[in-house]
Amino acid sequence: MNRKKQRGQKRKIKVLCNRIEQWVPFQEQTQEFEHFHVPSSPWIESPKTSRKIKTLFIKKWLEKTAELVQTKPQELPFCKVVALVACPHLWNSQIIIFYSQDYYKGFWDRKGQEQRWDNIENNEISLMKSRNIETDFDEKGYLETIMDRGTAIKSVLWFYREW
């Protein structure tokens, strides 16, 4: 990991927020899902990036998700919007729009040998509580374990979705 100071954090978060605002959703309605990744380089997950900037990113991510929930087309037979915040790798975060109910139901079952999601009880830890962020979404956490050439890579995935 780069040990240099992260310069221009305020400018970078402003650019990042502007790019998030420019997304045009609901374009891939014939697919099972559509997803948006963090539109920047991985500077957001650097240990040198301030906690305040990371919290601003998470707030913006959830605001955009709420906006997508409010503006989703009513004529769709099935549509769910989900925000994924990956910790500590914020750059891996996504906003996912599901158009297939079967795919949506199967998405949550990750118990394979290469990838496993284990439930985190909300009373144990909470990203929203630790960052003092208010949201109308329900929070669901998973401990993700990915096996890569015999090495276990662990991270925490926080999902925010309309129920």
Number-wise, the strands total 6
| Number of discrete domains | 1
Distance between the termini: 38 Å
Shape: globular
Task: Give the percentage of residues in beta strands.
Answer: 25-35%
The main pleated sheet reads as: 6 strands, antiparallel
- Summarize model confidence as the mean pLDDT: 89
Helical proportion, percent range:
25-40%
Low-pLDDT ranges: none
Folded structure, characterized:
The protein has 163 residues and is an alpha+beta fold. The chain has one domain (9-21, 28-161). Helices cover 28% and strands 28% of the residues. The chain is built from 4 helices and 6 strands, in the order H-E-H-E-E-H-E-H-E-E. Strand 2 and strand 3 (94-98) form a beta hairpin. Helix 1 (9-21) runs parallel beside helix 2. The longest helix has 21 residues, at 51-71. The chain is globular and about 50 Å long. It starts with 8 loop residues before the first helix and ends with a strand.
Layout of helices and strands:
Layout: H1 9-21, E1 33-37, H2 51-71, E2 80-87, E3 94-98, H3 101-107, E4 115-120, H4 127-131, E5 138-148, E6 151-161
Antiparallel strand pairs: 1-3, 2-3, 2-6, 4-5, 5-6
Helix pairs in contact: 1-2
